[in-house]
């Protein structure tokens, strides 16, 4: 398998963590979707990463779809329950973590892709509020539990950990640790795992 993506993307990192946890072999092809010479549209018409290219040429995209598929390939380190409410709960955690990232990405694009005189402060504030509320919700849901879904490491933890790591990279001015020490503990515990240490996001 070949994974197309960047070392900064939290969505690509999520897939890389899953690949590491599942002990699956793959090659990574680095791609800057914002570069003038990007060819990402040739594999994903939406122009996004990650993309997972199978040995037969089939291309799968969207980190949530890819992660769910990878979890079916081997019983090693099962990250999703088989079905029912427990599975939906893990996917709900993942959707919330990805949604917090989505809001942050919008802010970053507004600040970096538009000239200062065209940037909208109310628009930025609206999406930063989504980030604040999303992080607070993740913290409230985690509570005092060792892992997002209780006692077991899952894709929920992977998604939350990748979100927190990305905010450290792109929004170092946002202090999420002080108001949410339980998220800080989870983040630190995740970085005891090789899958997280080996995929620290890089600009």
Automatic annotation (TrEMBL):
Q: Where in the numbering of this chain does the GST C-terminal domain appear?
A: 83-203
Q: Tell me which residues make up the GST N-terminal domain.
A: 1-78
Can you tell which superkingdom this protein's organism belongs to? Bacteria
Gene Ontology biological process terms from the UniProt entry: glutathione metabolic process; L-phenylalanine catabolic process
Which InterPro entries does UniProt cross-reference here? Answer: Glutathione-S-Trfase_C-like, Glutathione-S-Trfase_C_sf, Glutathione_S-Trfase, Glutathione_S-Trfase_N, Thioredoxin-like_sf
**A single MF term (Gene Ontology):** maleylacetoacetate isomerase activity
Entries under PANTHER family matching the protein: MALEYLACETOACETATE ISOMERASE
Q: Tell me what this protein is called.
A: Glutathione S-transferase
């Amino acid at each position: 398998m070949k994974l197309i993506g960047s070392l900064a993307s939290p969505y690509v990192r999520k897939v890389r963590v899953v690949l590491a946890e599942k002990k699956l072999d793959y090659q990574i092809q680095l791609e800057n979707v914002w570069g003038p010479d990007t060819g990402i549209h040739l594999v994903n018409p939406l122009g996004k990463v990650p993309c997972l290219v199978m040995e037969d040429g089939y291309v799968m995209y969207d980190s949530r779809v890819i992660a769910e598929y990878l979890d079916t390939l081997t019983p090693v380190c099962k990250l999703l329950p088989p079905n029912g409410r427990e599975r939906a709960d893990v996917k709900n955690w993942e959707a919330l973590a990805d949604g917090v990232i989505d809001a942050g990405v919008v802010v970053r694009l507004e600040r970096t892709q538009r000239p200062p005189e065209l940037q909208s402060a109310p628009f930025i504030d609206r999406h930063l509020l989504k980030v604040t509320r999303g992080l607070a919700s993740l913290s409230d849901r985690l509570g005092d539990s060792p892992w997002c879904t209780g006692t077991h490491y899952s894709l929920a933890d992977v998604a939350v950990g990748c979100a927190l790591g990305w905010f450290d990279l792109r929004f170092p001015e946002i202090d999420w640790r002080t108001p949410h020490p339980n998220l800080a503990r989870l983040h630190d515990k995740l970085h005891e795992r090789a899958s997280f240490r080996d995929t620290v996001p890089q600009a």
